[in-house]
Structure formats: C-alpha cells, structure tokens
Design a protein that fits this description.
In chain A, 53% of the residues lie in helices and 13% in strands. Chain A is α+β, with helices and mostly antiparallel strands. Chain A has 4 domains: 374 residues, no CATH class; 37 residues, no CATH class; 106 residues, STAS domain (Transcription Regulator spoIIAA, 2-Layer Sandwich), CATH 3.30.750; 170 residues, no CATH class. In chain A, the strands form 3 sheets. In chain A, strands 9-10-11-12-16-15-13-14 form an 8-stranded antiparallel β-sheet. In chain A, strands 3, 4, 5, 6, 7 and 8 form a 6-stranded mixed β-sheet that branches. Chain A has a two-stranded antiparallel sheet with strand order 1-2. Chain B is of the alpha/beta class. Helix content of chain B is 43%, strand content 21%. Chain B has a 10-stranded mixed β-sheet with strand order 3-2-1-4-5-10-9-6-7-8, sandwiched between helices. Chain B is elongated, with a radius of gyration of 20 Å. The chains are: A alpha+beta, B alpha/beta. At the A-B interface, α12 and β3 of A face α7, β8 and α9 of B.
C-alpha cells in the first residue's frame, strides 16, 4: 500500500505551476473562444462565457485531472445548424436541454459511449467537422462572406474566393484578406520555428497581439482609421458588467418541435463523444498516470452546459488541444482549469474594448487551421495504411456527414462497418449468434506470478468491445496481463487500436500487457492496428507480423538470436521426448535460434487425440542441445507427467537429503542411479530457487516449457534466461 | 449416501452415426459406477434394431453389464422422461448434436428439452468415443448455493470412479457481489481489496466443503480452486474450454421459463455452447 499523501500541502505546492499553465491556456482559449463562437454564428463573447463557466464548474465538480473545458471544435457544425434553424434564443434552450441529457448520460454511467463507435467512423466524422469549419471560414478569411446551403458548396467555391481575393479593388477587403493570410501563416509556421522567446506566447495569442498592435499603430502613429473593412472586425464585445447583468432571452417555445430535439440530440452526441475522446487522450498525457472518472466528468460537463446556456454561452466540452497545452505547461490538477477561467474573466474585465480591434479574418484563420488539422491528408494516409476497408468506412461517414448531418453520418459509419465485417467474414451468423452473449473470461492464473489472463471468444469488434474493456478496466495497471485471442475468429481495427492504448498505459505504470493468439489470424495490411480474422488454412507467414511476433524479433536482436516466423515441419528432434509419445506434432513456428544452434525457443502446435476428440494445443517451448550426455529423465511439479507414467512404468525418485525438493517435484527416469548422480546439490538448489518448469531430457538435449498455452514475450525472456542458467549448472 | 448414486443409468438411443460411440460411453460408465444400464429407444420394436444394439453391447456384456432395452413409440421427450421415471433412472446420458464446425457444439432440441425438464442427473456427451478416452481433468462449480455441497461430493465420487488426476473447483463471483464500480484509481483499489476478501471467503467456503468429502475419494487427486470474477454460468464454461477439461459438472438450475431462454443466464450459456462433456447434478 502506498502511504496516504498529504493532499492539501501537495495542492498548495503545485499551485504556482497550475496558475501559470492556466494562464498560458487562457491565452489560447481567448482567441479560440471568440473564433468558435463567431464560426457558430453566436455572439463572439459566447465562446468566452462557455470557457469561463465550464472552467469553473468542471474544475470543481469534474472527475478528470488535467483536462481543460470550453467551447469545442466539433460542436461548431451542430451549433451553427441549431442557431440558423431555431434562432439564437431557442438554440440556447437546446443547449440547456443537451446539458440535461449529458448529465443524464453521466448518471447512467454511459462514459463508455464513445467506445460503441468504430474508430474509423469517428475519424470520418471528425474530418467532416473539420471540413465544415474549414469550408465556411475559409471565405471569411479571404474577406469574402458568402452564404450557401451546403458545406460541399462552400468547399467547391474555395478556388473562386481565392481568385476573387487576387482581384480585390477595395482596400478594406485587401487588408482583411491580408490579415487572414498572415494569420494562417503564423498558425502554420509557428510550430516549425523553434525560438524560446517566440514560443512563450501561443500562436493564436500572437495573432491577437499583432492585430491589436496593428490597429493601435494606425490609430496612434498614423492617426488614421483601421484600414480593414468595418464588416470584417469583431462586432462589439459587451463589457463584463453587461454580461453579468443582461442575461440573454431564452425561448423554450420550440420545445415541441422535431427540429429542436434533433439539434439537442446532435449537440449531446457530439459534445459527449468529443469530451470522452479528449479525456481518453489526455489521460495518456497525464504525468501522474491517473485514471479519470469519466462519468463524473460527464455530469460536471452537463451542469456546466446548463449554466453556460443560461448565461448565453455554448456547450461545455473537454477539449484536446487546450488540455495538451495545459499538460505541456505543467498543469497537474483541476485548478489549472479553474485559473484558465479566472484569467479569461480578467481579460474580459480589462480588455473587452481592445478585443474589438481584432479583424475577423485573422480569427477565422485560426479556425481554418484547426479544420485543416481535423481533415488533413496525413490522416487519410494513416487510415489507408490500416486497411482499405477502413478508408471505405472513413469516406462513407465523411460524405454522409457533409451531406446529411452528423447523426445520419455517424449512423451510416456504424452500418457500413457492420456490413464490411459481414463481407470480410462471409458469415453473418457468427455475429448474430454471439452478439448478445458474453465472450470474455478473465481470471488470475494460479501460480506465484498471478498474471491476469483474459481469453476472448467468437469475435471482438466495436459492437462488443465494452465487455472486454470492462474486464480490462478492472485490472490495476501495474500488473501483468495476457490477452488471448486464439478462440476468437475476428478482431477489428477499433479493438486493436484500443488494446494498443491499454498496452501503453500498462507499460507506463510498470505493468505488462501482452496480446497472444493472433499469429493465426490474417490481416491485409502491415499496420499494427489492422483488423484480423482467423483463416481456415493459414497462409505462409511473413507478410504481416503480429505485435507479438515483432516483439519476438526484438528479443532475437537483443539476445543475438535468429528469428523465423515461418512454419517448420521439421520436428523430428522432438520425437524422442516422452511428452510427445501420445501427441501428434503439427508444426513449430516463431523460432528463435542462437548462433551455435544449441538453444531454440519456438511456438509449437500439436494435437492430442483424433477426429472429434482431437484437441489442438499451442504452446511455447525451449529446446537445448547439451554438449555432454546425461540420463533420460522428466522433472515436473504436478500431474502433467502422470500421463507418461503409465507408458514408461517409472516412479518418482526421491532424495533423502533434499526433502523439500522431493516433496515439490516429481522426478522420474529409468536409470535411477545415474539420475541421482546428475542431480547434485547445485542442481537441486537451482531448481528449488527457480520457478517451476516442465523439464525433460532425452539423453543429449533438454526440453523446457511451463504452461500449455503460448507464452507472453516476458515469459519467453524468463524461459530463455532459465534455460541458459540451467545449461550452465548442468554442464 | 454416495454409494447409492447412479444405480441406474439411462440412455436415449437414436440410430445416428454416433450410436456406437454413445452406447460404448454409457456402457463403460455403467461398469465404472456398477449400475444398471437402460437403453431407451423411441420407436417400433424390431429384432433387427435389437440385434444391432446387442452387437455393440457384446464386449461389455462379457464384463457382466446389467442392461435392459426398452422400445416405446411416442413423442421423444415425453417417452424418454416417462421411462426414466418408471425405471428410476438416476443418470440420463444424452448425445449432443454437433453443428457448424469442429469447435462448436450445439444441443439438439430434444436433448435441450429433456435437460430442462428431467428430474434426474444429466450427462451431455459432445465427443463420445468407442475407445476409452481417460477423463483427466474435471471442472466443477463451487457456487454459493445449497446444492453445491452435493455437486462437489458427487464430483469427487465421479473422479474417483473415473480415476481422474485433477479436479478444479470454480467459484464464479458476479459483479453484483463485488458491488464496487471501477471508475477511477480510488475505486479500483477499493474493488481490488473487496475482490481479494471475497476470494478468500469463497476459498474457505469451498475448502470447508472439500474437507467433508471422504478421504479415500481424494486419494491421488489434485484439487485446485479458481475464483473467477465474471458472468455466472458463462465464465465456468469458457474456463472449462480454456483448460481443456474433460468433464464439467454443474448444479441443476432452478426452473427455467421461456423468459430465461430469451435472455440466457447461468446454465443456459453452457447449453447453448457446450465447452466439453457436461454433467448436471440433480
């Protein structure tokens, strides 16, 4: 048990760091808040109100640690639709209702909601949101406000807008477009310039500072009006006293309409998905590796959204970019979120009039860059590298979202994923029969190491991943886990990606997370997250190594061994061992051999019994060729060798001077005298002080293995080490 | 009390490809348990059929197998159940149907119905064999249930008779019993502590039951307890499949209704997907 920390003193010790990082985050949150609100057709100040209300409420009530809350990118699209169809006053009512729904999700413990969507579909949806933001704001960035019915139309018109901008005659518009383009350049090149003074202030704040400076330059030095067209400046920002005294009118008149609830549902869905994904991603960044209480966070976000809606703000969500800035600047607990809100209040109180000096194109450039990041070609390349089918899911979701909206888009993504799974497996019954049934077994292996062993049956996709997730979440991260898919026919990309996240969390916390049993599965891309299905007749290996096989390759490099994943039918060297007397060896694979060919670790597939009683078993073994000849013997602790007892008619050999050894181990062999000479004090002490293995000698070589299942990479290393030391003691 | 177990063993006989294997298994078990074997065939009496059965039974008759063949027409489920009751069958053996592919076995509708309605113990065979395949490893449930004590003692009796090497008692612990929902580090620590406590408690409960089993049944037998946190009835089946157990012994379920079949639980999971041979004790 770890001693209970003195939380209060730790909190005060970390306070300065959190105040600082809260300050840095507020520098980004201010321009982003203004921009996101403007992009949603809401008053500019609404974004800042959202960040302030969200920051205060979620930092007090939330369950995560280093997240920052405020207006979200993902919501721009849906908020825009809500405001344009319902009107601002009814849209506030929709936001409040979605806050209630969010809170409900928290109380219903739906924190795993985001796990029910295929990850490629979520990627597609986010890319669509990126295009929605980019499509609309790109025109404003170039000083060319247009209004079209459809996002696709906005995108198609981008070249015309650029062309128009090159031929502007109105100086106001030229300056506006200039501000937009320069701001975009700042966003793009900021991360490429490594200068510690420049990096003190985040890029969006540079844009704000430069544009305010520009405006003051014209006013005080040149004594002219700001040359940027007045339409392209931020409209009046109310002062702090106005915000607090003049609450917006909220109209619940549309509450009976279908459109109203459509907006509420979209707002809730996107707000929850964006928040949950962000929380998951931020947890990975947390230096103290804490686990967020997502359900509690959802409740807090819901309350925050209700409050924000009443005060004239937008939906409060957890945002990834601002949270990562928070972590990078040393934020360690929720107080940084609180201080970020506090600094925003200070900015509004002191500088609300200065903010109107920011040109709109400059602000929109920040959003265009954000939109581009959400839908960047790199992302498409990444999705494609995972597999062609993921690209189909991605584009179906993307295009449907652009055309018909978010709810229909994500639904289409889910449906196309299911259809693709049916087609790939050519088997619908596999899914229908096993969908509602549990398919995961988890238990602690009953030996000194007590690994957690998780076995998954039938299929494992986004549709039933929550069952596996539930089990995995119950395991403290400092433990060793082995996830076995050998009984599982099909594993999809969403699951592989999530398991990879678990792998990194476990290794960060000193645990070990191994995935075994996928070597028999087929995948058609080299990407580690590619979906995998079991093939009836395994193809030749070598086209795509599984994670475990790659680890084996690394081990082979570290220990100067030769690795081969290919199936090898040459198993004659195993036949003299008693263990295989009643077993049929199919093949060995994943071989690790040392240079002198005396050590060989391999996975082996063998079968017991025949026809319908046939059982196929896969396990990992170590074979050592000895330089000297030793008597034939078998050493084990439990009844494993009972099976060969009868065949050979041997009985247990006991040592009078080593009662403990005799009690714990069964040692059998024909030539008792020679065996007794071989088992001298050194060797017996060696066995007594090391973990149990099943060890067999056939006269000139040894066969060592522990369990009748494939070993994890960690176990393979241990086996190798054991074998080396054993060889040393014996010879 | 254990001596009286299984003094009559019944088997439903259908002339299927598995006929010989099923009967061989049943006859062997009758010899092991020193009980009488009743072969029940739903259909017309014919000397040809009787001859066929006699041929299969011949090697066992030489070893003094006490048997009886009953022919009766009617609804298979009703006939088998009524004859079992008349002949006071204590253990009814049913061959399960094998469908789809090698690894998955599903019960036929008749075997399923009988399993739900029978008043005696049921043994479901998924891989009957003409030659004896030794039963090495038995998995038995250790639920916190009044019937468990009887089930475990019968499991020891069976493993003694079949000369098994290993018996694993699985305690399934449901989420409701842990009653701590893991949502952050604190609740995770708490749930780990609660789980450890429950595991100890269950272990000691099972040890208590084991200690009451007569010593000579435990001779040469390795006993292991394994607690699993998971869905009741499902986890034990998956576990039995994973450890490649040769026999899974379960308590009889409470009455099942139509509702239970729609939303499977407990034994229904095992019936829908037999992991190995299953013995249900009543």
């Amino acid at each position: 048990m770890t001693p209970k920390k003195n939380n209060m003193s730790l909190f005060f010790k970390q306070l300065p760091k959190n105040i600082f990082s809260g300050f840095v985050v507020s520098l980004i949150a201010l321009p982003l808040g203004l921009g996101l609100a403007m992009a949603s057709d809401a008053p500019a100040i609404a974004g800042v109100i959202t960040a302030i209300v969200g920051g205060v409420i979620v930092s007090i009530l939330g369950g995560s640690h280093v997240t920052i809350t405020g207006p979200g990118n993902g919501l721009v699209g849906v908020t825009l639709v809500a405001i344009s169809t319902l009107g601002l006053e009814t849209a506030y009512a929709a936001i409040i209702c979605s806050g209630v729904l969010l809170m409900l999700l928290g109380f219903l413990r739906m924190g795993n909601l985001a796990d029910f969507f295929p990850s490629s579909a979520i990627q597609g949806m986010l890319a669509a949101i990126g295009l929605i933001i980019l499509g609309k704001q790109f025109h404003i960035m170039f000083g060319h406000k247009i209004s079209r019915a459809n996002t696709i139309d906005y995108l198609i018109e981008i070249p015309y807008t650029i062309n128009d901008a090159l031929h502007y005659e109105n100086t106001g518009l030229i300056y506006a477009a200039g501000a937009g383009v320069i701001s975009l350049m700042i966003m793009v090149f900021y991360s490429k310039i490594r200068n510690k003074y420049l990096q003190l202030i985040p890029a969006p704040m540079w844009i704000v500072l430069l544009s305010i400076g520009f405006s003051y330059y014209f006013e005080f030095i040149l004594h002219k009006n700001n040359p940027i067209a007045i339409d392209y400046m931020i409209p009046a920002i109310p002062s702090f006293s106005e915000i607090t005294t003049e609450l917006p009118n909220i109209s619940f008149s549309g509450i009976g309409g279908l459109g109203f609830w459509g907006s509420v549902l979209s707002l809730t869905l996107i707000a929850s998905i964006e928040s949950l994904l962000s929380i998951k991603a931020v947890d990975k960044l947390d230096s103290e590796k804490r686990r967020s209480n997502v359900n509690r966070d959802l409740k807090a976000l819901g309350i925050g959204t209700i409050g924000s809606g009443f005060l004239g703000g937008l939906n409060v969500v957890t945002v990834i970019a601002r949270s990562s800035v928070n972590v990078n600047n040393g934020g360690t607990n929720r107080s940084s979120n609180f201080f970020h809100a506090l600094f925003l209040v200070v900015f509004i109180v002191l500088f609300s009039s200065q903010l109107t000096r920011i040109p709109l194109p400059a602000l929109m450039a920040i959003l265009v860059y954000t939109g581009y990041k959400l839908a960047s070609p790199d992302l498409i390349k990444k999705v494609f590298s995972i597999g062609k089918e993921q690209l189909i899911i991605f584009f179906v979701t993307l295009l449907t979202t652009l055309k018909f909206g978010l709810i229909i888009g994500i639904t289409a993504g889910v449906i196309i994923t299911i259809i693709i799974h049916f087609i790939i497996n050519k088997n619908i019954t596999l899914f229908l029969r096993h969908w509602i049934k549990p398919n995961v077994l988890m238990f602690r292996e009953d030996d000194e190491k007590s690994n957690y062993y998780v076995s998954v049956k039938h299929f494992c996709t986004f549709a039933n991943f929550y069952r596996l997730k539930q089990k995995l979440d119950d395991i403290p991260e400092e433990n060793d886990v082995i996830v076995d898919f050998s009984l599982c026919d099909f594993v999809d990309h969403t699951v592989m990606e999530n398991l990879n996240n678990y792998q990194s969390t476990f290794s960060k916390n000193g645990g070990h997370f191994d995935i075994v049993g996928l070597d028999m599965h087929d995948a058609d891309s080299k990407h580690p997250f590619a979906l995998r299905k079991i093939v009836a007749v395994p193809k030749l290996f070598g086209y795509n190594l599984t994670g475990r096989q790659e680890n084996l390759e690394t081990i082979s490099n570290d220990y100067e061994l030769v690795y081969s994943a290919e199936k090898n039918k040459d198993t004659l060297f195993l036949n003299p061992f008693l263990f295989f007397k009643v077993k049929q060896i199919n093949h060995i694979y994943n071989e690790l051999t040392d240079k002198s060919k005396s050590f060989k670790i391999f996975d082996i597939e063998f079968s017991e019994g025949e026809f319908i009683a046939k059982e196929v078993i896969r396990t990992s073994m170590l074979h050592i060729v000895l330089n000297t000849s030793i008597p034939v013997f078998t050493l084990d602790r439990e009844s494993l060798i009972d099976k060969v007892y009868a065949l050979a008619g041997f009985s247990d050999i006991n040592f009078e001077h080593h009662q403990d050894f005799s009690k714990r181990f069964h040692l059998v062999g024909e030539d008792k005298e020679k065996i007794k000479t071989l088992f001298n004090d050194d060797l017996i002490h060696f066995f007594e002080s090391n973990p149990y293995y099943h060890i067999e000698s056939n006269g000139n070589s040894l066969l060592i293995f522990s369990k009748q299942r494939l070993a994890s990479t960690k176990e393979i290393k241990a086996l190798l080490d054991f074998g080396k030391r054993l060889k040393h003691v014996i010879s | 009390m254990i001596k009286t177990n299984f003094h009559t063993i019944g088997i439903g006989v259908a002339f299927s490809p598995n006929l010989k294997a099923n009967i061989c298994e049943a006859a062997r078990l009758s010899l092991f348990f020193e009980s009488k074997l009743v072969l029940i065939h739903v259909g017309e009496t014919s000397s040809e059929k009787e001859q066929k059965l006699q041929d299969i039974l011949n090697p066992f008759i030489k070893q003094n197998l006490n048997y009886e063949i009953v022919f009766k027409t009617g609804e298979p489920v009703d006939v088998i159940l009524s004859i079992s009751e008349d002949k006071q069958v204590k253990l009814l053996i049913l061959g399960a149907l094998q469908k789809e592919n090698f690894v998955q076995y599903y019960l036929g509708t008749i075997a399923r119905k009988i399993t739900r309605q029978a008043q005696c113990s049921i043994l479901l065979l998924i891989k009957p064999s003409v030659e004896r395949v030794p039963c090495k490893h038995i998995v038995v449930n250790g639920l916190n249930d009044p019937k468990t004590k009887q089930t475990i003692s019968i499991a020891y009796y069976v493993s003694h008779k079949l000369q098994s090497k290993k018996i694993t008692i699985v305690e399934e612990i449901t989420k409701q019993e842990v009653a701590v929902i893991v949502h952050d580090d604190k609740s995770l620590r708490k749930s780990a502590i609660v789980k450890e406590r429950i595991k100890r408690r269950e272990d000691s409960r099972v040890k208590q039951i084991i200690s009451e089993v007569p010593e000579h049944f435990k001779l040469g037998l390795q006993t292991k307890t394994q607690s699993i946190f998971g869905k009741r009835g499902y986890s034990i089946g998956h576990y039995a499949q994973f450890v490649r157990a040769d026999l899974l012994i379960m308590n009889a379920p409470l009455k099942t209704r139509f509702f239970d079949r729609l939303f499977p639980h407990d034994i229904e999971y095992i019936l829908s997907e037999l992991p190995t041979d299953v013995l249900i004790i009543r």
